[in-house]
Specification:
The complex is a heterodimer. By secondary structure, chain A is mostly beta strands. In chain A, 0% of the residues lie in helices and 49% in strands. In chain A, strands 2, 4, 5, 6, 9, 10 and 11 form a seven-stranded mixed beta sheet that branches. In chain A, strands 1-3-8-7 form a four-stranded antiparallel beta sheet, with no helix packed on it. Classes of the chains: A mainly beta, B mainly beta.
Chain lengths: 108, 112
């Protein structure tokens, strides 16, 4: 099973700041890495798939990069609606599909 | 617009059974693979099951032999039969399309 480790667990930032979230895989997932955003009481929403492709309707301030075992989600300038929990996911070596433990982006 | 609507959650005793359903709207249901993903209270996301468009199924190890996934393409309906439920199965269960683009609102299962 591929283990995904996200860091940091919590990121305290102010609106307008840049957010950099990390996801490290226990083995190569090539480029099949996705990112999800989840707000309290809501279902997750797909942001990024295949490392760097934005899903439909996702603003350009969200970008993804990386390959192999190290991946990054960057939010270039935080908007108030971006404060949420973010999860990475791999579907390269499945079953099982695995998710990281999440990074909470909170208002500083 | 693709829409998924789950139902069937509730309170059940350990060892009991529950059947979750997921109705699909706004897309050609039979052409899509589908998943169940769950989230225990205050915890992260956990993939549970997958069914392909031709009904091949995969389950995470912790539910093998207890959960059965099936689909009825004529009714645009996905079903998850959950037997021998355990405390650790307590979670919100989400139905998603195979590409994880569309998610339902979730249905809460409490085993207690």
């Amino acid at each position: 099973e591929v283990v995904l480790t996200q860091s940091p667990a919590t990121l305290s930032l102010s609106p307008g700041e840049r957010a950099t979230l990390s996801c490290r895989a226990s083995e190569s997932v090539h480029y099949y890495l996705a990112w999800f955003q989840q707000k309290p009481g809501q279902a997750p929403r797909l942001l990024i798939y295949d490392t760097s492709n934005r899903a439909t309707g996702i603003p350009a301030r969200f970008s993804g990069s990386g390959s192999g075992t190290d991946f990054t989600l960057t939010i270039s300038s935080l908007e108030p609606e971006d404060f949420a929990v973010y999860y990475c996911q791999q579907r390269t070596n499945w079953p099982p599909v695995t998710f990281g433990g999440g990074t909470k982006v909170e208002i500083k | 617009e693709v829409q998924l609507v789950e139902s069937g959650g509730g309170l059940v005793q350990p060892g009991g059974s529950l059947r979750l359903s997921c109705a699909g709207f706004g897309f050609t249901f039979s052409r899509y693979s589908l998943n169940w993903v769950r989230q225990a209270p205050g915890k992260g996301l956990e993939w549970v099951s997958h069914i392909s468009s031709n009904s091949k199924t995969y389950n995470t190890d912790s539910v093998k032999g207890r959960f059965t996934l099936s689909r009825d393409n004529a009714k645009n309906l996905l079903s998850l039969q959950m037997n021998n439920l355990r405390d650790e199965d307590t979670a919100v269960y989400y139905c998603t399309t195979g590409d994880y683009v569309a998610w339902g609102q979730g249905t809460l299962v409490i085993v207690s």
